[in-house]
Specification:
The chain is an alpha/beta fold and about 260 residues long. The chain is built from 8 helices and 7 strands. A 7-stranded mixed β-sheet has the order 1-3-4-2-5-6-7, with helices on both faces. It binds guanosine-5'-triphosphate (GTP) and magnesium ion.
Length: about 260
């Protein structure tokens, strides 16, 4: 069985492609809308141990992480977004899942690189974040939020170095180019191709909370991360059948 919203919602043999992808978006957005505040953790040790996939939103301060979570979940004030950079100061978790059954968690991480934050706090946060990215066991995917007008900063590059080994082992990775409404079409296309090169073949999406651009696409991708295809198990032959000789097999010689 394959868990994709496309297949679950329509018969691909008969439905036109557009209808199939529209239902995939509806399923993913419906799932996103179930988001509920779960907990906030000022330090790693306060994070609950979870078994469900966790998707972390990371990026420089003011990049638009909290706004992106609010847009995806279609909730105005789920994650605390603000004009003042450095607003998100703890790891905030939001649970997702229909019928009250949590099947994934979104993590809104504090932004980095805000100049007005005291040096000691900056250092502490970089440590917490690096530890989180390296050690969080149920971490399934990372969404790196990047304002394309600034491009990747030095701290983004450091983060990429930190997560690279895990990405090589299968951790999902997406770069979201935020505030795309601030770019014209040519600038947006250029920003996308530059980032595709920098992301080394990883996914890159243009996104605007203001214009609701890229929302369905990002929601669908995160849905797929949290609902990977279930590998068909090899059928095991019942022990009795495996032990019994085949009907056409020669009878065992009683003399040995
Ligand atoms: N024009 C525009 N502004 C946006 C968009 N997304 C976010 N913003 C604005 O950017 C500012 C920062 O947004 P936040 O979502 O708080 O950013 P953050 O990355 O969570 O910031 P920290 O919590 O400080 O790390 C706010 O003033 C938002 O309204 C967007 O798509 N377009
Ligand atoms: Mg924030």
């Amino acid at each position: 069985m394959t868990h994709t919203p496309t297949r679950a919602a329509s018969d691909p043999a008969h439905a036109p492609q557009k209808t199939a992808s529209a239902s995939a978006a509806v399923i993913a957005m419906g799932w996103m809308h179930t988001a509920k505040f779960l907990t906030t953790a000022p330090e790693l040790k306060f994070l609950p141990e979870l078994q469900v996939p966790e998707i972390a939103f990371v990026g420089r301060s003011n990049a638009g992480k909290s706004t992106c979570i609010n847009t995806l979940t279609q909730q105005k004030r789920l994650a605390f977004a603000s004009k003042t950079p450095g607003r998100t100061q703890s790891i905030n978790l939001f649970s997702l899942g229909k019928q009250g059954v949590t099947d994934a968690v979104l993590a809104d991480l504090p932004g980095y690189g805000y100049a007005a934050v005291p040096k000691a706090d900056k250092w502490r946060w970089q440590q917490v974040m690096a530890n989180y990215l390296v050690t969080r066991e149920n971490l399934t995917g990372i969404v790196l939020m990047c304002d394309p007008r600034h491009g990747l900063t030095e701290l983004d590059e450091i983060l990429l170095d930190v997560v690279r080994p895990r990405v090589e082992e299968g951790l999902k990775f997406l770069v979201v180019l935020t505030k795309a409404d601030k770019l014209n079409k040519t600038e947006a296309a250029k920003a996308l191709s530059i980032m595709q090169l920098q992301a080394g073949g990883g996914s890159v999406k243009l996104f605007s909370a203001l214009k609701k651009q890229g929302v369905d696409e990002v929601a669908e991708l995160l849905w797929q991360w949290a609902h990977p295809p279930v590998k068909a198990e090899k059928p095991t032959r019942p022990a009795i059948e495996a032990a019994a000789p085949a009907a056409d097999a020669p009878a065992a010689d009683p003399q040995g």
